[in-house]
Amino acid sequence: MTESGSASTSIWSRGMMAVIAAQFLSAFGDNALLFATLAVLKAFHYPEWSQPVLQMVFVGAYIVFAPFVGQVADSFAKGRVMMVANALKLLGAGMICFGMNPFVGYTLVGIGAAAYSPAKYGILGELTTGDRLVKANGLMEASTIAAILLGSVAGGVLADWHLTAALVVCAVVYAGAVVANLMIPRLPAARPGHSWRPREMARGFANACVTLWRDGETRFSLLGTSLFWGAGVTLRFLLVLWVPVALGITDNATPTYLNAMVAVGIVVGAGAAARLVTLETVARCMPAGVLIGVVVAAFALQHQLLPAYGLLVLIGILGGFFVVPLNALLQERGKRSVGAGNAIAVQNLGENAAMLLMLGLYSLAVKAGAPVVAIGVGFGTLFALAIAGLWIWKRLR
Description:
This protein is mostly helical.
């Protein structure tokens, strides 16, 4: 189904609902596939330090393709870019399902995700405007986190039941996302006519990076979201090793349940941000960012399941309230300066570089034999200090 021209500014338009549905299915597949693939690594006795390496090859795809995916998103109808990206994810999941090297298959999923991200966020600024953009981002984050919640649990539970069945479900969900993308209106390309020579594309991306990092507001957003997502992905892998040490539970499902608690909290936090924060009052989100690190450090010291659930919900609430306004700020200012697709590609580069760095440090700490509880406390403390420093810098400006 296609249509040309401007889309409705309502966040409940047909186009917005199609984007949200496609995003839900795609994110569900991403998270279910991660835990199913982690179960593959356990089943075939890969070393523990290889688990974050799996995420690192995914993140590496974002970094390698960052100079190109923003231009792709802005040069074509973003709904169709999302469809092709989900088809790549489907191919990668199929490779893992048929017994091929999980790192190779997951890298292909990462390439699809790298192409998907600038289009999915960039299209929000084409479907709605102004303060509705914060609300649209809240809706997108709520859909994403609901998918993380259900996908993570489904991946872990299905992997405990039947590993092949878990992988097949992931492939089917990606196929559903491809179909959902067909329902997104075909809006005009935002910035067609760019050169497709790799050197010129890389130069254009470098110019977009310079433009956004020189602007004080977008630099603030880029730093905040990079720290948040780098911390988020590290926490996910920390949980996998923390559960058997702190709780004495060794199944695949419990870490997914705990990750799901973070997801529940982010839905609540994203909703609160949509109501309480506007593009003019983005700094209201900063105390929540500092508290994330404090609560992570407190969580790492727990040895009971019920308090752990509660603290992870709180981490999610704080995270949703922190990151949604920063995303909206970058999309609004980036759309006016370098194009929404390029802005999100620059954001992805920063976020995934932070993920790669944090995961690398985490892998080294695990390989060196550092206690997982000590890693958690140190990680939370450093995150709180980093966000506090960013907040102070923002106020001094």
